[in-house]
Each structure stands twice: as structure tokens, then as C-alpha cells.
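User: Could you check the structure of this?
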Amino acid sequence: MISTKRHAKLALAYFLVAAILGLVLRTSYTTEIPITYRYVVHSHSHIALLGWVYMALTTLLYKLFLEGQGLEKKYRNLFLFTQFALVGMLFTFPFTGYALFSIIFSTLFLFASYWFSWLFIKYTPLALKQTNSFSCIKAALIYLVISSIGPWALGGIMTTLGPTSNWYRIAIYFYLHFQYNGWMIMALLGILFFVLERNNIALPKSTFKSVYWSINLGIILTFFLSVLFTEPSSSLYLISGLGGLLQLWALAVLFKINKELKRPWGTIFSGFEIGLLKWAAFLIAVKMILQLLTALPYFANLATTVLDFTIGYLHWTFLGVVSISLFLFLHYYKLIRIPKNFIRLYLVGFVTTEGIIFYKGIASWLRFSLFDGYFLALVMASATIPIALIYLLVFPPKN
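Assistant: Sure, the predicted C-alpha cells are below.
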């Protein structure tokens, strides 16, 4: 029998590894460490996105939609294949960067993601395929597959145009956009709808259709935000802005429906879980507002010229929107018990590091100097997150 609890705990362990690698990167600004910075960046990002988020999401999706369907052997083989690829990336990227073996392992992971997508869509029971939650998750898996066009294109771009070309950056942004905004956000939305459906709360068909298509069209159109650094024609600014507006509108509709629910959230989630849900809702609202702002030429230029704003935004989405939502659902489905002390410590680390990163971005923007000890403060704030994860993994709550 598949132990989804163990799989969830392994995903959390990958998060710890990614957090430690991130801490090493920030410590390298204050202390000489014998690493190749960009190699560790590659390892940090791959393990964060593919070890923590991918593993946590697929574990949840297996438990909600596929558990009990007689797929234990197939899923176990897929799980072992995925771990082989992840461990391979973990032990090659930090030492070689993008080279033969790291490329082989990352390519194997792409095949693992295709395998999971096929398994999920083929074997989800017919009754569940009629639900809104399945529609969202099917779209998420399509985005997961689409995102892989970016890595596939990189080889040809490197050979013909080189890493300094705009197309190289566009391929990376393509991958990140459809990972963050397509696969992750749509999968999390699908899990939320699944929870509501299991509690006999369903959106009216017409409302769901308008929200669903607005979000998906928004995801496609906002990709063009990623190419605004090329200073294209004004039409692309308008298209990407329209995508941002569509997503904000869909979010506003969901917030409005939330207020109109006759059944209070307290009958579905605990007070602690409602707190996490509020955090996630606030963070995604801010994310979408920032996203819309970058459709304006001034802010588009700012986002592409001040690296700290880009890093801050990506971490806002990853550590904030995505990770806090995952904590909520893993706790709700009893895959990992998330204690309040862990969340408090994690939020201190998240809020503090985001504040420090955006402060540096603002300093670059307005051209004022950083305070003394800036990088040391960033290291100390960053250390809070792996400490919180160690606390959760080593001292899990007993009941």
C-alpha cells in the first residue's frame, strides 16, 4: 500500500534541502564558501520546484483522486523513477551546473511528469471527472506539460544563439511562468474545489465556467509579461494587461462567492486552517496586483532591471502563496500535522526575508545605500525557514 504520509514527509525533506541551499547562497555574500554560485542556484531552484512542490502536489492528487483504484504498483514504480531523477539532479547540479548528467536527470524528470499526467487523467474515476476540481487539475497538468517546452528549447537555443540571447531568457521565463501560474496555482485551486465539493458546496455551472476560462485565458495572456524586457510593441503590453485583469476579476468573483456562502468556513476548516487560507488569499491577491502593475511600461522596465524585485516576487509566490497553501492542504488531509509554532516561525522567516529583499530592490530603484550588515541580516532571516522545517521534521506533533 502506498504511504502518502511518507511521501508528504519526503516532499518536506526536499523543501528543507532547497532551503539549506538557499541559505548557502545567501551566506556566500558574507563568507567565502567553495561553491560555484550559479550551479547551486540551479540545484536550489530544481529541488524547490520539483522536490517540494511537485512531490507535495502529486501526493495530494494521488490521495484525493487515485487512491483505492488499484494503481499501487504503477504509482510505486513512477514514484521510484521520480526519486531517481530528483536525487540525480541534487547530486549533479551543485557540482556541474547544466552538464551531461544533470541534463539527463532533469530530462528523466520531465518524462516522470508526463507519466504522472497520463496516469492521473487516464485512471481518475469517471464520477470525479465530472467535477469542477478535476477540470482545474486537468488544466494544471496540461500547463505542467506545456512548461516543459522551455527546457526542451534550451538545448537548441544554447547551440544556435547562445545563453546571452533573448530567446534563452524567454525559454526560462516560459518554463517558470507555466510552472508557477499554470501548474501550481491551478492544481491548488482544484484541490480547494475538491474540499468544497466533498462538503457539498459547488459553484453554479455558469459561474464556474466564467471563472475557469478567465483564469486560464489570464494565465496564457500574462505569459507576455515575461517578454516585456524585449521592449516589444504596445500591443503586447495591452495583451498582458488584459490577462492580469482577467485573473484579478476571477479572483474577485471567488472572494464574492466566499462572502455569499451560506455555510461558514468554520464547518469545513479548523480555525488554524482558516488562518492559513486567509494568508494564502491575501498573498495571491497581492501577487496578482503586482503582476498587473508590470503590464505598465515603467513597472515592466523596473521588474526586469532590478533583479531583487524579480527574486522577491518569485519567492512571494513560492514561499508564500504555494507553500502556505500546501501546508494547509497537507494538514487538512492529515498527511503532515502542521503545528502553530512551526507556522509562526515560518511566517517570521518569510515576511522578514521578503521585506529585506524588497528593501534592496527599492534601494536600487531609488538609489540609496543599504544599511550596514544588510547581507548578514538576510542570512539570519533566511536561516529561520530551514530551522522551522528541521523543527517540523525532527519534532513532529504527537497528536
